[in-house]
Each structure stands twice: as structure tokens, then as C-alpha cells.
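chain below, 315 aa
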Amino acid sequence: MILTVTPNPSLDRTYEVPSLDRGEVVRATGERVDPGGKGVNVSRAVTAAGRRTVAVLPLGGAPGALVAELLDAQGIEVAPVPIAGATRSNIALAEADGVLTKINAPGPHLTAAEQELLLETVRHQSRDADWIACCGSLPRGLAPSWYAELVARAHATGVRIALDTSGPALLAALRERPDVVKPNAAELAGAVGRPLSTVGDAVKAAEELRAMGAAAVLASLGADGQLLVNEDGAWFGTARVDTVRSNVGAGDSSLAGFLVAGGRGPEALGSAVAHGAAAVQLPGSLMPAPGDLDPAAVTVTADVPLDRVLKEPVS
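prediction:
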């Protein structure tokens, strides 16, 4: 079972539009309403893969009730933490050429009692978990050290932790040695404080995160592929993608693919790449099912192309 923790979930509305014209009326050609948040997306992808998951998330107000209803309809077990504030609502505008514009609300403020209840709910639900995936930004009220506390408590009970966050929350959690961290290229560059121009730059940055405490680093490099660095070495994975429709949740789908494949080594990286590639070819934040995957389109190699210039360098 994979337990997911989403401290700042959302209700996500995605509109497909031909293009964006500022100041004009834009008519959508498609619309989706989904439960959102990085950990929620991981749970949705794990469920689509046919594995059991439990989603721990603070929920409040009408948006929170709808998030729980939508997850239940998808067959996802929810361990809700009641809060006084309302769950945030986000909007994504997906243009026909693949460009995505997102408007993310800040989310509610969690009280000290709500924060502790969230940690206690994770402890209670983790007894049957193979992995805990802690994902996303922290809502108002939670200090950057909150994820570090969660990792420490989980490790005390022998549960493996995958962490997908950024900034001070990521750096604070590294001291508690999460089993895998999953930054994208921008988050990886932010963690080491310098630009990334090549795959080799990304490998060096991932090694620095390992030196700071991460047991393994699974880095999403956008259109350039994905990178896995652990104590055994480094691997680089790519996949053929025919049409990009939306990258909403693609990184979360990759993390789910990595965890359902065991969360270790090149085979798990191949699963992560296959899931991420499938996700970007689906509309909105739809998560790929096994039939959407194309393992034959995936290449994983230990011969990492260190000198390859990134198509999307991070300055």
C-alpha cells in the first residue's frame, strides 16, 4: 500500500482553450474538475495502476467535501483531517499548443492542533504502508520543518519516505534522510543555488542532495527525460512522446510509477518515465492506466549523457 500525504490539496478545474488572448472572452473547448494536489495525483495514479493507496489530506468547506466525493468516486480511500478553513480551488488553462497556465490559490491556514492531527493521522494510517509519499507545498501555518518532522516520525516506525517538495521545506527535510526525493529541474537548481545547463549539471546537483541526506534522487528534467541517482550510481531515462496535451500531474504520475515498481533502481526509473510520458499525452490531469503505457518507447541507460545540453535549461 502506498500512503500519500498532501498538506495543501485543492479542487482543480482545467479548461482546454484554443489560445489565450488577454482581455478577451476565451471559449473553452473542454472542461474537467478533479481532486488536486501532488499527493492526491500520486494516489490517483497508483489507483489507475491497480494498486491500493490511502490519501491523507486536510479538508474543509464545500471544496474539501467535493474533493473527498471525487476521490471516493475513483475508488480511492481517503483519510480526511477536518480543518476550519476551506480547501483551495485552482484553475489551469491548457492551450492547444501544449502551453499550460496555472492559477494556484494559497490555501487555508492550519492551526497547531490541525497540524498535529495531520501528523497523527499519518502515523495511524502508515501501519500497513510500504511507502509514504509526502508531496507538494505546505499550507499557511506549517513551518518549513514540518516535512522533516513527518520524515523522522515515519522512519521511527520503519516506513520508507518519498518526498516531493521544494525550497526550504526540501532542504530542512534532507537532514532526516528521506529515502527518495523527487525534484524537477527548477527545484533541483534551487536546492543547490545555481543554474543547470546540461544533464551533467543535473547529476552533480543530485549528488549534492544525496550528500545533504537524500538516499536517492529522482529528478524530472521535463522534455529531456528523467534522472535517478543513488548509492549504486546514476541512470538516465527518456521516452518517445507523440503529442503533448497537458503536463498537469505528469511528475506525480512519474513518482507513482517509480513507487509501484518498487522505488529502487533502473526498472523503477523506467516505470517512472513510462508513466510520465503517458500522462503528458492525456487531457487535463487525467492519470494513465496500464493500457496507456508504452514501455517499448522508454530507454534507460547507465551511460548518462553528461554533456547533453538541456532543451529546457534552468537559469
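The mean pLDDT is 94. Residues 2-314 form a domain with the UDP-N-acetylmuramoyl-L-alanine:D-glutamate ligase fold (CATH 3.40.1190.20).
thats it, cya
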